[in-house]
Specification:
About 25% of the residues lie in helices and about 20% in strands. The chain has three helices and seven strands. The protein is globular.
Length: about 150
């Protein structure tokens, strides 16, 4: 799984899931999503901006599946997680995907790699992860949930 900007070490690196959160006043003007991914989830509001971003940024054939409008805001959707909106802004993409995986009850174990340093999550999100952490390796590079 890769979140937001896809930065592969190798041009042929595989991405099963690319998740991205639309940000800013005109999220449809960003770079196109041309890197190959099996599935792409795009989170964002409002609905017209989400639709326009998909029309302008998806590259035909670059993904096998794309999440539909029902998954554009899973944390705040009453039919899914129904979490209260945070005044500090939208949740990080990684946190949104983790909450969605937890809600669905799959997989049995999730290893988080690279969530320290510049990729560190905001305190509220780290608190949620900390409450579900099973193990952490010494340098805190790998965090295992469940």
């Amino acid at each position: 799984m890769r979140c937001d900007a896809v930065r592969h070490a190798a041009p042929t690196a595989r991405t099963d899931l690319h998740a991205v959160t639309l940000r800013g006043d005109s999220p449809w003007k960003g770079p196109r999503w041309g890197r190959r991914a099996t599935a792409r989830l795009v989170f964002g509001d409002p609905l017209p901006h989400w639709r326009l971003a998909l029309r302008n940024r998806l590259v035909p054939g670059a993904q096998d599946r794309i999440g539909d409008a029902t998954l554009r805001r899973p944390l705040h959707d009453p039919a899914l997680l129904a979490e209260a909106a945070d005044a500090a802004g939208p949740a990080s993409t990684a946190y949104t995907v983790l909450r969605l995986l937890d809600f669905l009850g799959t997989p049995a174990r999730v290893d988080l790699i690279g969530f320290e340093g510049p990729a560190a999550l905001p305190p509220r999100e780290r608190e949620w992860i900390g409450a579900r952490t099973g193990t952490t390796d010494d340098p805190a590079v790998r965090i295992t949930l469940r």
